[in-house]
Write a sequence for this structure.
């Protein structure tokens, strides 16, 4: 990314210098040739491609290259792939659509990637008062839909339902999108995932088909956030990546429909479920076996529901597991104790445990049936926001993670981090003996230092090869401080992150 930034800055500087020389040339004959003018066409094309496809910039700024000189313009206009990334952000004006039409024309027959961010930062959370409605979405769809056979990626971010409904309405009659690989539809309003909330607006509550009966031969990645589709239709099939997040609980599929989605996606490698899964409408639901799944991200609101949902699944090849309590962002006033969920995850199918499992509060976990979660296979484990939990339940989870090499802990879960320290002469065996990489965010630096130094002196543990500390709320770890100096001296990489932890719920809050 730094190289692309340098290239972009270099091009910008060259544009300014070229303009100055052009003005001098207009007043007198000059043979001055800039270094960029001596570059072969192939090198210039590569530089243009890196800039045009840089995801950190709006591609509209790339158009300035065509106004530098005739050679640059010829090179840029001859390559349709340079115009294949189309970005529209709110607020939109008529000239934005005009630019988009030109962009699509210049892209010729190249596959196109479309990114629409239609969120209003000043929105007052009133669904009816949003300035971007279906009336504004319609002309956008009319511009893009004739090119649907060239769509490769389509990503849509909105505050409200109307723009997504309009997208689904216009695409429901599409017969074929032969190269479409990725679709992401995100209604960025987590409120609807809270307990007891229903889908709104009521007038648009009826389910609508996702691309109707279209043949989507290349579609492998789908992300649906806060949407409502017809779950009985067959468009969700043959996927390798699927995300279902922050939906209203009353518009989710029933158990049979839910299982049908995964039966149609036998090659699924990555799955993310945040909030509500299926409406658990039958007492003995069928098992869902995902034989090829390698990574699973799970965000829960209700531990009772979470256990029932997870009991549906069988992940024999799972290697990466992300667990997050999303109640802190969806329902901040409702505190959910995660202890029973962790205890259930650590209950093996054989009915035995590596240690005595004491169920806090006398909770009976046997009613859920045993877990088949393959904890001994997990190599990467992340915990986000698991603050309300009995540390003993985490200790049990850690004892089962016998193959774990990478651990991420976020959001002040200091009692969990402390479990990784080595106590001299202690009766408890050291946890996670194969751990090589530890990432922490917004934790107590003193606890992290103790963990790192104590594990370094143990002959029973694999040495930690990479330790990182990211902070968003702690000023004590700023560069130059004593804490920062001690962390760096211990071999810990320290980062200041003004954004989010990278968890899915924080990402959605920032959308």
């Amino acid at each position: 990314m730094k190289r692309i930034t340098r290239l972009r800055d270099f091009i910008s500087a060259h544009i300014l210098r070229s303009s100055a020389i052009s003005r001098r040339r207009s007043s007198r004959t000059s043979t001055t040739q800039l270094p960029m003018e001596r570059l072969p066409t192939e090198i210039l094309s590569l530089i243009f491609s890196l800039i045009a496809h840089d995801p950190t910039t709006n591609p509209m700024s790339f158009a300035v290259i065509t106004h530098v000189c005739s050679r640059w313009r010829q090179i840029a206009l001859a390559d349709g792939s340079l115009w294949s990334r189309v970005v529209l952000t709110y607020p939109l004006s008529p000239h934005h659509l005009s630019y988009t039409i030109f962009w699509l024309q210049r892209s010729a027959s190249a596959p196109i990637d479309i990114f629409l961010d239609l969120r209003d930062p000043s929105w007052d959370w009133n669904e009816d008062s949003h300035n971007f409605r279906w009336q504004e979405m319609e002309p956008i769809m009319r511009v893009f839909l004739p090119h649907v056979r060239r769509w490769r990626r389509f990503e849509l971010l909105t505050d409200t339902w109307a723009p997504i409904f309009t997208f689904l309405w216009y695409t429901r009659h599409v017969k074929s999108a032969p190269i479409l690989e990725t679709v992401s539809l995100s209604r960025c309003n987590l409120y609807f995932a809270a307990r007891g909330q229903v889908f709104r607006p009521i007038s648009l509550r009826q389910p609508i088909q996702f691309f109707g009966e279209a043949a989507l031969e290349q579609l492998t990645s789908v992300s649906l956030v806060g949407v409502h589709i017809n779950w009985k239709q067959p468009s969700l099939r043959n996927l390798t990546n699927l995300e279902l997040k922050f939906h209203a609980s009353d518009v989710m599929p029933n158990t049979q429909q839910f299982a049908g989605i995964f039966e149609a996606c036998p090659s699924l490698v990555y799955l993310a479920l945040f909030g509500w899964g299926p409406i658990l409408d039958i007492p003995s639901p069928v098992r869902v076996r995902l034989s090829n799944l390698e990574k699973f991200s799970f965000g829960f609101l209700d531990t009772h529901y979470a256990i029932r949902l997870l009991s549906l699944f069988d992940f024999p090849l799972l290697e990466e597991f992300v667990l997050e309590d999303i109640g802190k962002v969806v329902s901040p006033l409702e505190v959910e104790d995660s202890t029973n969920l962790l205890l259930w995850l650590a209950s093996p199918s054989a009915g035995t445990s590596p240690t005595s499992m004491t169920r806090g509060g006398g909770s009976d976990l046997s009613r859920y049936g045993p877990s088949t979660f393959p904890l001994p296979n997990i190599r990467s484990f992340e915990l986000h926001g698991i603050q309300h939990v009995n540390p003993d339940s985490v200790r049990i989870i850690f004892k089962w993670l016998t193959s774990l090499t990478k651990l991420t802990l976020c959001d002040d879960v200091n009692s969990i981090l402390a479990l990784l320290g080595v106590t001299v002469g202690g009766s408890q065996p050291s946890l996670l003996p194969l751990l090589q990489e530890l990432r922490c965010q917004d934790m107590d630096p003193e606890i992290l230092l103790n963990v790192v130094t104590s594990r370094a002196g143990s002959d029973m543990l694999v040495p930690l090869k990479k330790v990182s500390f990211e902070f968003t709320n702690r000023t004590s770890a700023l560069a130059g401080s004593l804490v920062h100096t001690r962390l760096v001296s211990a071999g810990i990489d320290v980062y200041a992150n003004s954004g989010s932890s990278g968890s899915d719920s924080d990402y959605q809050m920032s959308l």
User: Anything to note?
Assistant: Residues 1-83 form one domain.
